[in-house]
């Protein structure tokens, strides 16, 4: 049958179980995919901003070679609870042809749509620097870390969330300097 995509449920005993399961599967030599979902959040007169989350929490997509019968190996890996099955014999059920391509197409379309809204050139801030977010419905006033600036869109990490913003909505945080006074 060849290479097929399967869906697996991840264990919920740890923080960000999907990422940990993906790391475990990639280390074992499997291709994995975690579809992302882009949200535009607005509140009152605040300017809209984009946040990114997993489209299917608690699930991960795995590409396996069904001729080599990898499904027994996947079920035993740390972080994987079970492969989605369709009968009492617990035979793994592959996704229909084209489903992964459709998921990727939706993700690309959402990403392009969110990035095309009022993008501007990036301010002069090095990646990894601390920035303060302004004019955002949820994260206004919070300090985060600038992860990247691509096509006029700034990605800022704030408390475990990756927030997609217009680069004009972030300002560099001035380093704190303490003056020493002589006694």
Protein traits:
SH3 type barrels, 2 domains, 11 strands, 3 helices, 7-stranded antiparallel β-sheet, Alpha-Beta Plaits, 19% helix, single chain, 4-stranded antiparallel β-sheet, 183 residues, alpha+beta
How would you characterize the overall build of this protein?
The chain has three helices and eleven strands. The chain has helices at residues 17-27, 71-75, 99-116; strands at 3-10, 31-33, 36-41, 49-54, 59-65, 80-83, 130-133, 143-150, 153-158, 161-165, 170-172. The strands form two sheets. It has a seven-stranded antiparallel beta sheet with strand order 3-4-10-9-8-7-11, covered by helices on one side. The protein has a four-stranded antiparallel beta sheet with strand order 2-5-1-6. The model is unreliable at 118-122 (pLDDT under 50). By secondary structure, it is of the alpha+beta class. It starts with a strand and ends in an 11-residue tail after the last strand. The protein has two domains: 1-117, NusG, N-terminal domain (Alpha-Beta Plaits), CATH 3.30.70.940; 118-175, SH3 type barrels (Roll), CATH 2.30.30.
